[in-house]
What does this fold into?
Amino acid sequence: MPRLPAWLERYRRLPKRVLYFAAGQFLINLINTGQFLLLNLFLKDKGLTDPAIAALTSQRFVATFFLALPAGLWLRGRPLRMPLLVGSVLFPLTALASLQTVRLGMMGAASGCYLAMGFAGLLLNIASLPMALRLAPKDQSSETLSLLFSTWAAASICGGVLSSVLQGIGHLNFAGLYLVLDEHATLLVLTLAGFGAPFFYARLPDPVASETSVKHWLHVRRDDWPLLTCALLPTLCIATGAGLSIQFLNLFFSHVHHLSSAAYSAYGSISNGFVLIAGLVVPEVKRRFGWRGLILGVQGIAVILLAVMGLTELVAAAAWALPFAIGCFIVRQPLMSMAAPATSELTMNFVGARNRELISACSGAIWSGAWWLAARTFEFLRSHHVPYWQVFLTTSALYLAGCFSYLLLIRAVERGDGDGTASAPLPETEPV
It folds into this structure.
């Protein structure tokens, strides 16, 4: 039997508890990626305009924004399996309710379902990264985080393939029951699959943090505030930029290039195939090129591709515009996603074990607040007919600011100025 490359062998040696956690994460991400790929198109098919879609989807982030900080403070140092179990039950339930209320035209109830879904997602988001680092052996933290982030890509591939297959069939007549296989059918199947996540989370051990605060749960040490502020600055820039355009990429291709939802899902699956591979090689890229090469270099190229993709709106009538935009879309996402496990590991090292739940909560609040504000901004811009390419250029500028803000964290971690341990020198690369 041929020997696995060294970087793949490290994944094979991950403990079973990490694999259980990754399986649960994958099933939850089937819902997340299905919504990312198809929800806006489903809402558009129900007659909602761009501003109305932005207004409805932004409700998901309101609960997270207001509850993230108290939840993060409460969960510091506590066992995390129960919050994960509760979130993994509530999230598919509320996702299913939101689908059905929109389908039935009950938009007031749909808005409430989006709020509840935001709360369920909050529990999962706050607990996931700290729990992963508690479960992972210290020398396998990079592989653990890369595997967890790769579940998003794997789920996206499954969602995209399922969407293409179902919409390719179109309809099904089974035992006198006529079924339309559209965006709603795909979202329904992916949401139902998410109900399997609690069974994997229930099999996890429940370790506690290696370092906890001795004071009241609401207390934040004075010397932690500069750490938290420095750690959250890049997140603020990148989250705001992403909220302006990334959640509306499907609308961009639909309105500007008239790409169908089935075709968009298919190209999304191709892109996520590369995301999956790119995510798994992140630890090896970090060993070879360090934090700077992975976070600044790779993301810098991705930002340029995003700007170029948006500018294809100016030449949308040209025959080459759509293939060129699709090429940018397929390549940009893997490059931008490669840095996510590295930036998470860098941030967690910087703030230390005591503040991991808190920084995870604050990051969730920033992402939710930024995406809510950005969705409202997008709603305003599109209602005033601002073109997509200008929105994409704004996103690119914010991305660049966020990427270079990570330089502060990289220098601090390398010097050992954060609350975690300093990064060790990168080991010699093994032959592959």
